[in-house]
Amino acid sequence: MTVAAAAGRLYLPHMARFRKIAIALLVIVILVGGILFWLSRGDTADLSVDAVAGTDPVLQDPAAESIPTVKIAEPVGWPEGAAPTPAKGLEVNRFAEGLDHPRILQALPNGDILVALTRAPAKQDSGGGIMATIRGWVEDYLFEKAGSAGPSPNQIVLLRDADGNGTAEVRKVILSEGLDSPSGMAWKDGTLYVADHDALLAFPYELGSDKVTGAPRKLMDLPAGGNHWMRNIALSPDGKSLFVAVGSSSNIGENGMEAEQGRAMIWEYDLETNRQRQYAAGLRNPNGLDFSPWTGELWTTVNERDMLGSDLVPDYLTNVPVGAQYGWPWIYYKNNFDRRVEAPMPRFLQEYTRNPEYALGPHVAALGMVFSGGGARMGPDFASGAFIARHGSWNRKPASGYDVVYVDFDKLGNPVGKPVPVLTGFLTGKGTTRGRPTWVEWAQDGSLLVSDDTGGIIWRLRDPQAAPSPKIEEIVTERLPPQRELRDPRATFEEDYLREQAGQKIN
Question: Which site from 69, 80, 106, 209 is most exposed, i.e. has the minimal number of CB atoms within 10 Å?
Fold first, then answer.
């Protein structure tokens, strides 16, 4: 046998072994790829958005996802002259445009409008190993696709429609120093309050001024950054307190509840005593804040948890009494337990967890909210309720939100019916979106202003034929008489029942 023949006989078994290994590896790659493809397809909704909205939403059994459903409508911008579609009887125009990611709007008593140009704060490297790095890459990709990537402009811009033609011909940057991802704003007695992602600040500012020139005072620290970095604020009707909404840093506390200290709650800051307190908790990501014109009670919009499927869990609109608890992360909608949460649940949590008043649909990302007010020019069909900007989903198939809706309220100040679209047409129907409605605010002329952060536009919505609506009358009820003595409630009930049966009047 020649040397070449012997070498060939040795070579053939090695080739066969290599071929078998290659085939095995290929099969493994195909199997893993197939599994990843199956998981990445995500969950397609079984229900309509309306079915998971209202006072009695359909809540399916949860189906936990190891990989989230991802369906992002990439922003493509608005063509020249194009606009969203208003509800019948309403008209829309561009109040201001060419803005760099406008989010929260704040109307001032003199008619000026302030808008916060802002994005998420710069990320801090907190370590966490390879999984944290991969998660960061995924988050950056999602931000990029959703049109939210890039450095924060960190500006407060004044918009003024001096001639009353429905377009802001005056646009001035009044504040850009000392801000870090600003969001909520409020004004009172020469002071402009601004919530950065990590602090509540107070700046001296007189109405009509074109610049904020004084140095800020820090009123309180806020938990910095996190997955939910916006910090909306609202001034109480009596002007004595500021309410501050702070979202969680995670989906269901997966980073440990120590990372959620001071988060997923609404704070109250007393302007007279300069003290703060936790006002309400268990709210995964509260955003819009406004006070009921019927009762004066605080209401908020809340973004609920993810990765339980395209039909769960609906975002909601609810009242927020002092001390309220809404269950996050352990419970949603009063009596639904999230078995994914590893942190021990506090004792008796279910007993004092409240049920949200009104579901706004799954993954709609409900943000800005305002109640109907006296002087609004939206017509009689939209004169007694709340307007809500639904920013739009990134994790539902098909997409939800990307609109502004109206929720009707009855004479007692309770929400009824289903959300009614008042501004649509943001989605193109081709998997993209022209913009994303973010915030709502009343202009002095009674029109509704809507910020569109990825479109860089402030839209103005109104009924041109409508007279200014009357003020909603506050509900005033008689106080219960003081109890003069401690008695067994059962005995009192029995006495009242016996008197009623005898036809006697009960005081």
Answer: 80
Rg of the Cα atoms in the chain: 27
Domain boundaries, the chain: 50-462
**Dist CA 244 CA 373 (whole Å):** 22
The string of pLDDT tens digits covering residues 118-133 is: 999 998 655 555 555 5
First-to-final CA distance of the chain: 120
Strands 432-433 and 74-75: parallel
Strand order in the sheet with 366-371: 85-86, 415-424, 403-409, 385-390, 366-371
Q: Residue 24 pairs with which residues in a beta bridge?
A: none
Cα-to-chain-centroid distance, residue 89 = 28
Dihedrals φ, ψ of 26, to 5°?
-65, -40
Task: Check: CB of residue 117 under 8 Å from CB of residue 458.
Answer: no
Cis geometry, peptide bond prior to residue 482 (ω within 30 degrees of 0):
no
For 153-164, write each residue's pLDDT tens digit: 999 999 999 999
500 CA to centre of own chain: 49
Tell me if the domain spanning 50-462 has CATH number 3.40.50.720: no
Q: How many CB atoms lie within 10 A of CB 222?
A: 20
Beta strands in 151-281 (DSSP E): 155-160, 170-175, 185-188, 191-195, 199-204, 217-221, 233-235, 241-246, 265-270, 275-281
The sign of the dihedral angle between the CA atoms of 417, 304, 152, 225 is: positive
